[in-house]
């Protein structure tokens, strides 16, 4: 039925999952799969989380949605928690996805450039191998030529740099912002160096150019802190986030130090920040802040990283290096053929992992994954290593 009625936008594997628990998914035959991808970093508190399910259920019985024409109490509370937990002096706009959050960031940058006076500043610099979304503007912000086929003409004003070091040479008198990921989710899971980011931040602030950090994937404790920006010690002008914030309920957010950049009518969203999504976000933040403050999250990160490094050291002929930050990690492989074989064999042995870039296996487990679940998942992975030679 899917093939008859749903647009073919995904190269789907037609395993039919019917329920989940913790880091496990179960198919219609009752077989369990260890999910080391967590719905592409979305199911941050795992599957079947009782606290999240209860919060969503209670909210659904009261109000799912009104509109943003009226006050939404959990929306205000969620914005307050994001600001408090981040330590950044910002205001928040809620959308439904990472792409919409990034669209909001682009509009903030363009209006900022318009308000500076003199020549209009509109150019935004992004990085090669980046990924910022699938709307027309965020596709153009994504510096991957393969993503640009068929859908032009695109809006002007995007300039691409090959790395952080090249950004200063790309700046012109019409540059208003730089948008980048601290760890490129689609570009090989390689974190940028802290000292390079600190230098870039200082350089941009001296030029009065916005530093905008796309934390759609790195945000919401995936790095070990609420935002990877905190780990880097930087103070962005704009942060975008989404994926893990709702634990599976669609939500995105753009946060900015430019607190009065928009006036009513200049930006908006029908569904964004409604009662259901923001109540889910509040519960997710509470669960994950407990994981962080108790030390459990850091122990989980260390254990998962160590297990990946053990794999790389044990099989250097298969895995070139282990990379990543927090629970956003990768194993670099020889080539794309090896990667595809690894992902396929892992799935056959009931472990779900993802691809990043040309030759990197991407691991994004639930942040609440247990020691037992990690042990079982890595045991299953080791069982398929012999088939990769």
Automatic annotation (TrEMBL):
GO terms for molecular function: identical protein binding; pyridoxal phosphate binding; transaminase activity. It comes from the Bacteria. Signal peptide: none annotated. InterPro entries: Aminotrans_3 (IPR005814), Aminotrans_3_PPA_site (IPR049704), Class-III_PLP-dep_AT (IPR050103), PyrdxlP-dep_Trfase (IPR015424), PyrdxlP-dep_Trfase_major (IPR015421), PyrdxlP-dep_Trfase_small (IPR015422). NCBIfam families: PRK01278.1 (NF002325). It comes from Helicobacter apodemus. Coiled coil: none annotated. This is Aspartate aminotransferase family protein. The lineage of its organism: Bacteria, Pseudomonadati, Campylobacterota, Epsilonproteobacteria, Campylobacterales. Keywords: Aminotransferase, Pyridoxal phosphate, Transferase. PANTHER family: ACETYLORNITHINE AMINOTRANSFERASE, MITOCHONDRIAL, AMINOTRANSFERASE CLASS III. Its cofactor is pyridoxal 5'-phosphate. Belongs to the class-III pyridoxal-phosphate-dependent aminotransferase family.
């Amino acid at each position: 039925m899917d093939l008859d009625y749903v647009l073919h936008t995904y190269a789907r594997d037609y395993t039919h999952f019917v329920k989940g628990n913790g880091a496990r998914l179960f198919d219609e035959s009752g077989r369990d799969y260890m999910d080391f991808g967590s719905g592409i970093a979305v199911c941050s508190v795992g599957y079947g989380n009782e606290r999240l399910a209860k919060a969503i259920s209670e909210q659904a019985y009261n109000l799912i949605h009104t509109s943003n024409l009226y006050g939404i109490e959990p929306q205000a509370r969620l914005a307050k928690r994001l600001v408090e937990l981040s330590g950044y002096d910002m205001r928040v706009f809620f959308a439904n996805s990472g792409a919409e959050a990034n669209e909001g960031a682009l509009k903030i940058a363009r209006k900022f450039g318009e308000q500076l006076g003199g020549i209009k500043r509109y150019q935004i610099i992004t990085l090669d191998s980046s990924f910022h979304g699938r709307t027309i503007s965020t596709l153009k912000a994504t510096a991957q030529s393969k993503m640009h086929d068929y859908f032009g003409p695109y809006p002007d004003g995007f300039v691409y740099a090959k790395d952080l070091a090249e950004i200063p040479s790309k700046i012109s008198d019409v540059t208003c912002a730089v948008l980048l990921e601290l760890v490129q989710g689609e570009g090989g899971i390689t974190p940028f160096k802290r000292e390079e980011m600190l230098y870039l931040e200082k350089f941009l602030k001296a030029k009065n150019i916005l530093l905008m950090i796309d934390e759609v994937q790195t945000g919401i404790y995936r790095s070990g802190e609420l935002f990877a920006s905190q780990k880097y010690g930087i103070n962005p002008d704009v942060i975008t986030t989404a994926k893990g914030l709702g634990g599976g309920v669609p939500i995105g957010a753009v946060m900015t130090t430019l607190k009065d950049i928009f006036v009513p009518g200049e930006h908006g969203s029908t569904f964004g920040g409604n009662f259901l999504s923001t109540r889910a976000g509040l519960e997710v933040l509470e669960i994950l802040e407990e994981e962080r403050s108790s030390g459990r999250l850091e122990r989980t990160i260390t254990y998962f990283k160590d297990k990946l490094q053990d794999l790389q050291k044990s099989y250097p002929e298969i895995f070139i290096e282990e990379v990543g930050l927090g629970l956003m990690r990768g194993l670099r492989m020889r080539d794309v053929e090896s990667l595809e074989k690894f992902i396929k064999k892992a799935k056959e042995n009931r472990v779900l992992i993802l691809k990043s870039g040309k030759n990197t296996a991407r691991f994004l487990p639930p942040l609440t994954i247990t020691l037992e679940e990690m042990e079982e998942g890595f045991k299953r992975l080791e069982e398929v290593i012999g088939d990769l030679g």
